Amino acid sequence: MDKRGYKSRLNHKNLTLLALFMFFFIPATQGREEITEQIPTGSPSPSRVSDFKNCLRRICLSILFGILTGLFCAVLFACLVRLVLRYMSRTPVLKGPVVFTPKIDPKTLQLALSTDNHQLIGSSPNGKYYRAVLDGGIAFAVKRLEPFEKGCPEIESKSVKRRIQQELEMLAGLKHRNLMSLRAYVREPIRLSLVYDYIPTGSLEDAMNRVRENQLRLSWEVRHRIAVGVIKGLQHLHFSCSPRVLHHNLKPTNIMLDPEFEPLLSDIGLAKLTPNLDTRASGYTAPECFQNCRYTDKSDIFSFGIVLGVLLTGRDPLDPFFGEAVGGGSLGRWLRHLQQAGEALEALDKSILGEEGEEDEMLMAVRIAVVCLSDLPADRPSSDELVPMLTQLHSF
């Protein structure tokens, strides 16, 4: 091979290598330059930082709104479930006689109450007591209340009827030796008829009237037993019932006496069902009930203090004597005046004055009555405190 042919082939080979170099190396270099130009150098621009913050804020707000929406929906669902359960469990409004004892047949009771052949055995500002005899000779006391005005849409609403029914069912569930049990009731358009056991011996008011007329003698032992029974009944209402029950209208006409002179409290809580009940003239209502229309368990204690004062003195709290007596105006003020003057013995009913030991007990009972009649409710003892105070009188 000559030199000319060799050089020709060498030149051709060099041209081929140069072409391959240009084909592979130059595009790669240009790509790297383009990539280098696209990579940001230095700190990011302010517009991109602002966009990032706005995006993060929107995400946080969306999460917070989702949480609040979920909580609201959960609370709303819980309220709806509670309303549905309350609606399903509410007490249905019953019609006709509602009886709480197997001794009374509802149809027989309805028939007995539909007749007017009842013996009137007592009356009060909010109703009258009758003696009704059912088939079989069973006698019951029926108290007819007329607390509502005819045609009053508020009274005729189902919600009010249901509330009254619940109150009466609660009263029917009271069980204690010194409480009258509600046996049945009948709701009519403008009145309620309440059925109790018939107590032939009458009330404490009947007994005290007979004492004042010298037709009956009640010894201090009997009067003390009556006072202890009354305060034990209040103790059960105030401390053993849940929720607490207040009497609202404690006075001798609402204290029945069995043949053994054991007291039974009646008309418990009826003042809540009789809005026209007027207790201002009874002489047994606590002063705070007139001042701020507030009634508490200490208001019941004030009424008990008057009852205890009646048992000790034999006098009616509305007797004009108290308006004329020194420091008088009321039974409580008269007793307080005599105690402060050291003349409490003058307040005692002369028919029960006997042995010296009994006089000491009665004088201590006068002190208890005066404390119960304090003008400030906080100064009065509770029924839970009064029970041992009265039961332990014999130990003084």
In short:
The chain contains 13 helices and eight strands. The chain is of the alpha+beta class and 396 residues long.
Describe the structure.
The chain has about 400 residues and is of the alpha+beta class. The radius of gyration is 45 Å and the shape is flat. Strands 1-5-6-4-3-2 form a six-stranded antiparallel β-sheet, with helices on both faces. Mean pLDDT is about 80; it is low at about 25-40. The chain has two domains: about 90-200, Phosphorylase Kinase, domain 1, CATH 3.30.200.20; about 200-395, Transferase(Phosphotransferase), domain 1, CATH 1.10.510. A hairpin with a 5-residue loop joins strand 3 and strand 4. Helix content is about 50%, strand content about 10%. About 30% of the residues are buried. The longest helix is centred in the N-terminal third of the chain and has 44 residues, at about 45-90. Helix 7 runs antiparallel to helix 9.
